[in-house]
Amino acid sequence: MADDAERRAFLAGHPAAALVSAEMPLRANLSVLENIAIVPQYRENLDYDRAAHRAWKLLERAGATGCALKRDPDLSFEERFIAKLLRAMVTSPPIILIERPALLLPDTDYPAWLERTLDALAADFNQCWILDYRWNEPLYAPR
Amino acid sequence: MLTRRGEAALAWLGAWGRAFRFAAGALAAAFTPALYNSATRTVVQKQIYFTAWQILATFTAFAAVLSLVIIQISVSTARDFGLSDYALEVVIRVLVLELLPLLTALFVALRSGAAINTEVALMNINNEIRALEAAGVDPMRFEFMPRVIGGTISVLALTALASLMALVLGYVTVYGLQGSSLPDFGRVMGKVFTIPILLGLWVKCLAFGVAVTVIPIVAGLDAPQKLFFAPIAVLRGMVRLFFVLMLIEVAALALTYI
Hints:
Number of domains of chain B: 1
Strand content of chain A: 5-15%
Shape of chain A: globular
Oligomer: heterodimer
CATH class of chain A: Alpha Beta
CATH topology of chain A: Rossmann fold
Order of helices and strands of chain A: HEHHHEHHE
Number of strands of chain A: 3
Number of helices of chain B: 9
Strand content of chain B: under 5%
Largest interface: A-B, 22 and 20 residues
Radius of gyration of chain A: 15 Å
């Protein structure tokens, strides 16, 4: 994207994509596990145990079970990112859109970290797009 | 100046319009069982826990002391004026029909209403509501409707508990610790609690319960998405709630006694 207007237009053009964004916070009074489980509870009418089991499995694959019971203010940037990513991933949407990852992972060498995280979860999503400005393009290796 | 006043009046009317629309939507959702799921039920249970169960001991003690003081004042005043036969009826009318429902609603409004108002305002300001919607979770089903149901059940339950306690204390104060006066007590109860009065009491408590949750939620949702508006949203919500509770009480008094 060349600028903010183009970014907004792109997002408006993909309303069905599951968004991982700094503008889409976690629900502050729920734990990470509950934030992820609540999506299948609503979208698939699952009971809490089954939804939490699915969320736990995703957290296991992401290597992030340690943050399962933490709430948003207690999370590191990486843990928060994983929580948002798994919330977007839990109902297997056709596209997951990670928007401006630098805003979500300010203290991390995020291109490499992102690559490893997405590789660990490769079996759990269909397509994952990273939405970033054109000047950040050299940071990403083609997937 | 007139334009500004007109705009303020329109904003005021708009806020009340949104409150009524929201209340109608929440009540319609509450009576649609298909909208309930495991997450909705959990939030209802949590709301009842925070609104009624957590304060049960404090509230019971407060209601018992208040009831006992008012019963004593009423009974001794009635005795002084030679109106002892009416003491129990006066106590029931003042405490059970008027004072305890209103004080319960105020108690819940100050504790849970303020908390709900703050939480919804912060959710709104932090964009958490939009994030829930984007994740496919309907905030009305998950966040708002369960709070209205839980809060209303809590107000009804606490009012019932306080009223029952006041009746027991009234009986013990007037007749002493013995059961032979139960038929007399039953006659007074029958005289006070006619079907229209019971129906009116139930509707009033229901209105209190809906008000202490709906008004704070709508005030929170009305907050512009800037953090410094959070206290203003709570202030507005609490003032609106106070006036609505008083309005319900005055309307109930007028319908019952005029």
